[in-house]
Amino acid sequence: MRLNDTLLPRLLRSPYAFVLAGAVLASLSACSDREAAESRANVDAAVEKSKDATVSAAHKAADLADKARDNTVNYFKSPGVKEDVDAAKQALKNAGGALSSSANDAAVTASVSAAIARDPELGPRQIDVASSAGTVRLSGSAPSAEAKTRAEQIARTVNGVDKVDNRITVTAAN
User: Fold this and answer.
1) Burial per residue of 130-139, b for 16 or more beta-carbon CB atoms within 10 angstroms, e otherwise
2) Are 40 and 28 in contact (CB under 8 A)?
3) Which DSSP string do the residues of 112-164 spell out, in sequence order?
4) Whether pTM exceeds 0.85
5) What are the tens digits of pLDDT across the range 102-142?
C-alpha cells in the first residue's frame, strides 16, 4: 500500500489547508500584480515542497513499518525464541504433571489413612501415612506383628499404591 495514494489527498482536504489558502489569498490581494505573481510562485513552490516532504515522510514511515514487521516476524521465527517457547511449554507440562502427582499422592494418603482407620484394632492407634509416586510409607505403632502386617495389606489394596514401606513398630499392649 502506498501512503501517497491515501495520506496526501487527506492532508490536502484538511480544513487547515483551506485556512492557509485563504490567508495567502488575502495577502495576495493587497499586493500588486507583479508581487502577486511572485507571491503565487513562492506559495506554489512552498506547497510543492510540502507535498514532496509529506510524500517522502510517508514513504519512510511505510518502509520503517515494513522493516519493523519483518524484524518481528524474524524474531519470532528465530531458533532461540523457538527454543524458549518449547522450554516454556515443557515447563507448563511438567508443572501440570507435578500438580497432578501431588493431588494423586494426597488422594492415596487419604484413602490409605481412611482404610486403616476402619480397622477395629488399628483404627484407634496413631498410624502415620505418607505417599509419594505410588510408594506408601507407614509409621507408628501396632499392638502385634499381625496388626502390622494387616496395616500393610490394607495399604496394598488401595488403588494407586505400588509399594509399601512398612515402618510400623510393634508395641506390646498393656
Assistant:
1) ebeeeebbbe
2) yes
3) HHHHHHTSTTTTTS-EEEEEETTEEEEEEEESSHHHHHHHHHHHHTSTT--EE
4) no
5) 658 888 899 899 988 888 888 777 889 999 888 999 999 88
